[in-house]
Amino acid sequence: xxxxxxxxxxxASNAMAEMQMMVHNALSTPLEGxxxxxxxxxxRFLTGRVGEFQRFIADVSTGITNIGNAxxxxxxxxxxxxxxxxxxxxxxxxVFGDYGATGPSGFRDTETFQEWQRRMAExxxxxxxxxxxxxxxxxxxxxxxxxxxYTFGDGSRKQTYSGYESGPNGELVSVxxxxxxxxxxxxLSSTTERSYENSAGRPVNSVTTASGDGDERRQSTSTTxxxxxxxxxxxxxxxxxxxxxxxxxxxxxxxxxxxxxVESPVSDAAERLGxxxxxxxxxxxxxx
Length: 288
Prior knowledge:
It is a single chain. With 288 residues, this protein is an alpha+beta fold. It has 2 domains: 1-28 and 41-79 and 88-109; 111-254, no CATH class. 36% of the residues lie in helices and 26% in strands. The protein is built from 7 helices and 10 strands. The protein has helices at residues 2-27, 37-77, 82-85, 91-95, 113-124, 265-273, 279-285, and strands spanning 140-144, 147-151, 157-166, 172-181, 187-197, 203-211, 218-226, 232-240, 243-244, 248-252. Strands 1, 2, 3, 4, 5, 6, 7, 8, 9 and 10 form a 10-stranded antiparallel beta sheet that branches.
C-alpha cells in the first residue's frame, strides 16, 4: 500500500502541475498586451482549488500508508493465536501510534512511520538543503560565465546553467537548467527550460523535470506552443524507467479582451443576469 500511495501521489502531482501551468497560460498570460480580467479571477479561483486538492491528496496518501502499516502490524500480532501472541484489543492502540502505547510483549523492535520517513529521506537525499532552492542559505557560492554553484551546510549543491543550443531545425534555443545534488554528490533532480521560435515564427517553451535513476527514474516534459490564432498547444510527455508513455496534447483557446468593441461574454452575462456569485466569492475575488 505504501508503493500504491507513492504511485498515486506522483500521478496526482504531475496532473496538478499541468493544471497550474494551463491555468496560468490560458487565463493570466497577457495576449497582445492585455489580460482578460475575468480570466485573472478564474485563475486565482482555480489555483486555490488546485492547492486544496493537493493537500487533500497528501492526506489521502498518508491515510493509505497508515492503513497498510496497521494491517501489517495486526497480521504479525495475530499470526498464531491470541493466546500464543498475548495480543489483545488494547494493542490496537499501539498499531495506530496512540501516545504512550507500547507493543505487545516479545514484539520485534519497532520503527515509527515518522522515523521511517526520516530514514528514507536520508537514504534518498530528499532532505538535502539544496532542494529548498533558496540560495540565501548557501554557505559558499562559486560563479562562472554560464551559471553558478551554491553549496549548502549539509554538503548538498545547487548548480545553475544558462546558455544556448541548436534546435531540431537549426533554430537558436535559449536553455536554462538547475541541477540539485545530494551531500554524497548524487544527482537528485534537474529542471531544464527551453525557449525558441519554430519554423513558423511562433514561440515555443518547454520545461523538463527529471528525478531518480534506473527503474525509478521519472522524466516529464511539458511543451507549450503559441499558435497563429492565439491559442496554445500544450504537449506533455512522461518517461518512467526509460519507457516513454503515450504523449497527451491539449489546445487551450484564449479570448482577446481589449477595450474598443471586443465582446467580453463573462462580464456581459454578469451584468445581464445580475449575478457575480455568492457573497464569499465576491469578497474573495471581487466582481466580474
